[in-house]
Structures are given as structure tokens and as C-alpha cells.
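Re: PPS structure - here you go.
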Amino acid sequence: MAEKTFRYRGVPFTTDLHTEESLSYAENEFVVLDDDTFNVTYPKSGTNWMIEILNLIKYNGNAELSNQLPIFIKSPWYELAHGKQQVEVLTSPRIITTHLQYQMFSKSFFNSKAKIVYTMRNPKDVCVSNYHFAKIVHCYKDPESIQEHLETFLQGNDVFGCWFDHVKGWMQMKDDSRFFYISYEELQQDLRGSVVRLCKFLEKELDDEAIDSVVKHSSFQVMKNNKMANWSLTPSDFMDHNKGSIMRKGVSGDWKNHFTVAQNEYFDRVYEEKIKDFNIKLFWEDK
Ligand code: PPS
């Protein structure tokens, strides 16, 4: 949870990163262009991974061109307090990132031909990843325990709100031809196949060599060692680089190393209750 929060349309945000005005601007005034692609995620679901993949695809697998700017600048979070200025200097076709819930997304999107890539991740791993992230980012409260963090997460009190609302909200678009959804776990299981599917959705024709390059340069190890991708260029007043990295483990199932049996059972109970009216099978279910 953030140190200083406020609610916008009922959803928690942090005053260190967002303002009423920036959120209202994103929702009501931002002008979406037809060739924009939105990279949409709940935090810790593979946002940076997808930024890297989408930019590499944009530049036909050319890592040098894709890495001209740090990852947090080349596809900025447009809802941030300084998001407007960051997006204004992007060259088209723009790749814009957001963690916003569906109901507060830009109204102008719906009159455009822009596209959305929505990436989801097993919420247990999302919760664990965010637990570690909160320890290195100054504007987040350092959670005392997994238990405390788990409660915050399941009650929907984390920044950007309830994971269940996020997924259910965005998945209303699942049959829209401008919407592509994928999971972190699918990216891990078959990165090349996922890149090929993404290229098709984005109507980008990349040859085999270019696809191989996208796969190579978006791998965890390459991104972790790439200063343009690993967030080491963020100022230390935002993130304590001595305490850890956003490129932490990059695996699925790390929740098993964090949750007790009782915590896992509790999570499952809440999950089943919240997801029971949702008739879409999610990738990690029954695995
Ligand atoms: S944020 O702050 O919401 O933008 O974070 P986000 O990028 O969504 O999530 C961070 C987690 O994604 C992992 N990651 C990757 N995993 C596999 N391969 C690649 N290339 C990759 N890039 C980022 C990162 O390690 C964080 O997960 P955890 O579980 O904490 O390691």
C-alpha cells in the first residue's frame, strides 16, 4: 500500500505519483490516436516485459532502436502526474502504458482504431511481486508481513485497486477485435509463439530473424542486465537500488515460497468467491 493515498472513483492512488487532475485528464481529455497501442496491466503482471516486447516489435527486432530511451520513458504510464508531458513527446506509433481500471480508461479510445494489449498474471504471484516492490519503492509502505500485504491485496486496497475488478473490467472487451489478452504465464511458456501472435494482432510482419531478436532481447536475463530496461536509471529518491530490483526473479509460482498452507487456502477461498460469476477460464486455474 502507498504511504499517502487518495481515492479517485473509489480506487486508491498514491499522491506521490498521481493527482485528481492527471487521472481526470487521462479519462476525459486525453486524445487517443488511431495508431496508438495501449499496454494495460494490473501492477506486477508483466508490464515492463510487455513494454519491451511491444517496442522491439515496433522496431522490427532492432534492439538498438528499441533501447534509445529508458523503459519508463519510452512507453510511459499516461495517468501519472507527469504522464501528459511524457506522452506528448512520443513519436507515433505510440506505445502507452497504463494500470488504470477499465471504467476510468480514456473515453476517446472508444471512438478510435487504437489497440489494447492486456497482460494478466496469477494474482498470487502479483501479490508476492508487489510485496517485494513495496520494500524498494519509497512511496509505498514497507509491508510488515506477507499476511498484512495479502489482506491489503485481497481487500482491494493496493494502489490501482482490486485485482478482481481490474481483470473482470478489462475482460469485458475480450471479443473486441482491438483487444488482445495474454498472461504472464503464457509468455513464459511460449515467448516466441506469443510474439508471433502479438505481431499478427498488431499487423506487423517480422521475419524469423527479427522475431528471434524480440525473443532474445525481452528475455529476463537480457532485460535484467540492460540498464535501459532494468530501472537502474530511476532516481534513488524513487527507488532504493540497494534494496532490490524490479527485475527480481521473473518466475511463475514464487508464491509457493511465500504463502503458508493457511494463507494459500485463504487466498483460494477469496479467489473462488470473487471469481465465481466470471465465466472465463484464466490460464493459471487448475494448474
Ligand atoms: S510494474 O511495477 O507494475 O510495472 O511491474 P511489472 O513490470 O508489471 O512486473 C514486474 C515483474 O515482472 C517480472 N519481469 C519479467 N519476468 C520474466 N521475464 C521478463 N523479461 C520480465 N521482466 C520483468 C519482474 O521480475 C517482476 O516479477 P517478480 O516476480 O517480482 O520477479
